[in-house]
Design a protein that fits this description.
There is one protein chain. By secondary structure, this protein is of the alpha+beta class. It has 19 helices and 18 strands. The strands form 4 sheets. The chain has a 7-stranded antiparallel sheet, sandwiched between helices. Strands 5-6-10-8-9 form a 5-stranded antiparallel sheet. Strand 5 and strand 6 form a beta hairpin. Helix 2 packs antiparallel against helix 5 and helix 17 runs antiparallel to helix 18. It binds flavin-adenine dinucleotide. Flavin-adenine dinucleotide binds next to strand 3, helix 7, strand 10 and helix 16. GO terms for molecular function: alkylglycerone-phosphate synthase activity; FAD binding; oxidoreductase activity. Its cofactor is FAD.
């Protein structure tokens, strides 16, 4: 299945002021959405357009001449970019705070240069040269990190370069018998699907960042896509990897299963560029489905909805996509959607006795119509007393499944603080975790004249538990927009501690690194640090990510 994608965003892979190159100028909200936001959140009519790039302070490149000469010799001088615009283009990812930085609030972390190797061997040599010249290296795929994963931090080094994998964009080989495909790491997800479609195959990995993110980035962050119930998480797809480290190439994965000690592939998957640069991934692929169907259902209240999803997960009856919105997210979806008739739907649901509507979208796929319908029957049997809404809401969700980032640009323009965060836990603790995070976010963000909306959904369900994905909408604090979100995020992370994971699929980056010890223990952090030390003895790889830097020593702080 090749999904429809707005290819206009693809040629320019550099991160700018928003999801789209224009920073949202081409993103719009339906007219009624602004009125709804004003009524619900206290948003006043105050546009906050993107500042032009020229308004941002960017230091001159500090890449020492010998390092620049060596890097140029490896990749060609034309692939060592030091112009302000190129460096600014790879200055950070796409979190709310990253985007605020491009709107003049906070400072983007701008690298000294962008290096674009053309193949695996060049990546290896670049990594080794950076180690030799004490230059920090930030691997950069699609730059869609929302946790500071591509922040160009120096980590005390002389300079920092972004290693952009955009030129590693080839499908290396396909083995249809074993259902394996080998890709270079910089292939963007829609391109991977396009290349596989020619063989009648699909990867089935469709995160909301699908349009821009890369296969190497997915592997480096243990990404999870919207169809995870059908295809698994990205780590389930990784059969093999090649990693360029300062100590040489590390190649892993020779068979579908092995008892030869711990599975070291999982040291690379999720290593976030801190252990090396993934240059190639061998991925499990599947026959592309010929049939699919998406439908909407409504359950009354989140507890009933979560119980229904649990029944599906434990009974093997999940759809390929299974996604439950809580009452708040259902309300927001109705309010911000174009073309729906929320009043009529609410009246219908009231007549059916539903007090707190929770929208459940389920999508099924199959090689044949009969196979797809048999999956649908299994889900519907297990679902019990859900209200069926038919294909309308299912198709609407499907059509807009990648629209969220553009809508976020428009909400930012409108003066909103809009951000997401995610976690996961076991079914028995899910309600408690949801209540704790909601409470923390509402408590932190409620202020005179500002009423936050905290919406939540389950989009990844397992036999033993599920993820919770929160979306926050609140009028931006004009005086201290950065502090407003930092305080809320801190409160949410503190609420998660002990109840769930600090991240289900967004990864650790800079933002979650301080919370990792709570989750994996001091010994766990020590093990990660030892592995890093072995692979990257000079500590040049992606400083500050995954493993938090030790507290700064007294005296002047190192430049970032
Ligand atoms: C609007 C939006 C929606 C999102 N939705 C989802 C979602 O549904 N599911 C999900 O899982 N994530 C989601 N994300 C987060 C993000 O897209 C994922 O983390 C994704 O896997 C990052 O891929 P990327 O190619 O953009 O990597 P980047 O952002 O470029 O990098 C991410 C991290 O991986 C490292 N890295 C990248 N490439 C390599 C490599 N080849 N070798 C070693 N390290 C590397 C980077 O240094 C960084 O630490 C979303 C982000 C946004 C902005």
């Amino acid at each position: 299945m090749t999904l429809p994608v707005d290819h206009s965003v693809l040629p320019d892979r550099r991160v700018r002021a928003g999801w789209t190159g224009s920073g949202g100028a081409d993103a719009t909200l339906p007219a009624h959405a602004n009125r709804w936001l004003s009524a619900k959140t206290g948003l006043t009519a105050r546009g906050t357009p993107v500042a032009p790039d020229s308004a941002l302070a960017v230091a001159e490149s500090g890449l020492p001449a010998p390092a620049r000469a060596v890097l140029s010799a490896i990749v060609g001088a034309e692939h060592v970019l030091v112009e302000r615009e190129d460096r600014l283009g790879r200055a950070g990812g796409l979190s709310y705070l990253d985007l605020l930085g491009r709107r003049g609030a906070g400072r983007p972390t701008v690298p000294d240069a962008v290096v674009c190797p053309g193949n695996r061997a060049e990546v290896q040599r670049v990594v080794e040269a950076c180690a030799e010249h004490d230059v920090a290296v930030v691997p950069f795929g699609g730059g869609t990190s929302v946790v500071g994963g591509v922040a160009a931090l120096r980590g005390g080094k002389a300079a920092v370069v972004v290693l952009d994998l955009a030129r590693l964009d080839r499908l290396v080989s396909v083995d249809p018998v074993s259902r394996l495909a080998v890709f270079e790491a910089g292939v963007v997800a829609p391109e991977a699907e396009r290349l596989l479609a020619a063989h009648g195959l699909t990867l089935g990995h469709f995160p909301q960042s699908y349009e821009r993110a890369t296969l190497g980035g997915f592997a480096a962050t243990r990404s999870s896509g919207q169809a995870s119930a059908g295809y698994g998480r990205f780590e389930d797809m990784v059969e093999g990897v090649r990693l360029a480290t300062p100590r040489g190439e590390w190649r892993l994965g020779v068979s579908p299963a092995s008892a030869a000690g711990p599975d070291l592939r999982h040291l690379v998957v999720g290593s976030e560029g801190a252990f090396g640069v993934i240059t190639e991934v061998t991925l499990r692929v599947r026959p592309a489905p010929a049939w699919d169907r998406y439908e909407g259902f409504v359950l009354d209240g989140f507890a009933a909805g979560a119980a229904a999803v649990r029944t599906l997960a434990q009974g093997g009856a999940l759809g390929t996509v299974t996604r439950l919105s809580d009452p708040r997210e259902t309300e927001v979806a109705l309010a911000l959607a174009d073309g729906w008739r929320p009043a009529a739907l609410r009246a219908y649901l009231r007549a059916r006795g539903v007090v707190e509507p929770c929208l459940l979208v389920v999508g099924w796929e199959g090689a044949t119509r009969a196979e797809m319908l048999s999956r649908r029957r299994a889900t519907r049997r297990a679902l019990g007393p859900a209200v069926r809404l038919g294909v309308g809401p299912g198709n609407a969700w499907r059509a807009g499944r990648f629209a969220g980032p553009r809508q976020r640009d428009a909400l930012l323009d409108a003066g909103m603080c809009v951000e997401t965060l995610e976690t996961a836990t076991y079914w028995a603790g899910l309600d408690r975790l949801r209540a704790a995070v909601r409470g923390a976010l509402l408590g932190s963000l409620t202020a005179p004249g500002r009423k936050p909306i905290v919406a939540c959904h389950i989009s990844h369900a397992y036999e033993t538990g599920a993820s919770l994905y929160f979306t926050v909408l609140v009028p931006r604090d004009a005086e201290d927009p950065v502090g407003q979100w930092q305080a809320a995020k801190q409160a949410a992370c503190a609420a998660i501690a002990g109840l769930g994971t600090i991240t289900h699929h967004h990864a650790t980056g800079v933002d979650h690194a301080p919370y990792l010890p709570e989750e994996i223990g001091a010994l766990g952090v020590d093990v990660l640090a030892a592995i890093k030390d072995r692979l990257d003895p000079r500590g040049v790889l992606n400083p500050g990510k995954l493993i938090a830097a030790p507290p700064p020593a007294p005296g002047p702080r190192p430049a970032r």
